[in-house]
Specification:
Blueprint (H helix, E strand, L loop, with lengths): L1 E6 L1 H19 L5 E6 L3 H10 L5 E10 L5 E9 L9 E9 L3 H11 L5 E10 L11 E6 L4 E2 L15 E5 L1
Parallel strand pairs: 2-3, 2-5, 5-6, 6-7
Antiparallel strand pairs: 1-9, 3-4, 8-9
Helix pairs in contact: 1-2
The protein binds 1-O-pyrophosphono-5-O-phosphono-alpha-D-ribofuranose.
1-O-pyrophosphono-5-O-phosphono-alpha-D-ribofuranose binds next to β3, β5 and α3.
Length: about 170
C-alpha cells in the first residue's frame, strides 16, 4: 500500500483549534453533551474537547459499519449507547469522517428517540465522493472530494489509526 501525506499535524491542530473556538462561541454556557463516535473519532474528540473553552459533558457511542475492507459493508450496528440522559440537552455528535453518511444517519435517528433539545454534527473529514445519505453537518474540519484516508483515528483494517497525521492510502 502506498501512503502519502495528506493533512499535516500542524494543519490538523490549527483546524481543531478553530473548530473549538467556533463551537465554544455557539454554545456559550449551555453545557452541551459531546458524544464521540468510537473508535475512529477518539483522537479528534480528545483534541477538540481539550481545546474547548466551554463547560461540557462527554460520552461515547460505538457504531460498527466497515468490515476489513475499503468498501462499506452497508451493515451498521450500534454496539454502545450513550449513558448520560440526552432528554432536553444540546448534543454534539463528534465523528472522524462522514463518507456514505450511513453511520451518522443511523446515529441521528437512534439518538433522536431520546428527545435531545438539539442534535448537531461535528466531523473532522466531510468526504463527498460516496455520499448516499444527505447529512446535515454543522461543523467540519476538512471537506474532501475523494480518496481513502488513514491516520489520526482513521483506519484500514484496524491499521494506521495511531498515526498523528492523515495520509491517503492507495493499492
Ligand atoms: C468509520 C468512521 C465513521 C464511518 C463513516 O467507522 O469512523 O463512523 O466509518 O462511514 P459512513 O459515512 O460511510 O457510514 P468504522 O465503522 O470504520 O468504525 P471505526 O470508527 O471503529 O473505524
Amino acid at each position: 500500500m502506498k501512503k502519502t501525506l495528506f493533512i499535516s499535524r500542524d494543519a490538523i491542530a490549527q483546524r481543531v483549534a478553530e473548530l473549538a473556538r467556533e463551537i465554544a462561541r455557539d454554545y456559550g454556557q449551555d453545557k452541551p453533551i459531546l458524544i464521540g463516535v468510537l473508535n475512529g473519532s477518539v483522537f479528534f474528540f480528545a483534541d477538540l474537547v481539550r481545546a474547548l473553552d466551554l463547560p461540557c459533558e462527554i460520552d461515547f457511542v460505538r457504531a460498527a459499519s466497515y468490515g476489513m475492507s475499503m468498501d462499506s459493508s452497508g451493515c451498521i450496528r450500534l454496539t454502545k449507547e450513550p449513558e448520560i440522559p440526552l432528554e432536553g440537552r444540546r448534543v454534539l455528535l463528534v465523528e472522524d469522517i462522514v463518507d456514505t453518511g450511513q453511520t451518522i444517519s443511523l446515529l441521528i435517528e437512534t439518538l433522536r428517540h431520546q428527545n435531545p433539545k438539539e442534535l448537531k454534527i461535528c466531523v473532522l473529514i466531510d468526504k463527498l465522493e460516496r455520499r448516499t445519505q444527505e447529512v446535515p453537518i454543522d461543523y467540519y474540519g476538512f471537506r474532501v472530494e475523494e480518496g481513502f484516508l488513514v491516520g489520526y483515528g482513521l483506519d484500514y483494517a484496524e491499521q494506521y489509526r495511531q498515526l498523528p497525521e492523515i495520509f491517503t492510502l492507495e493499492p
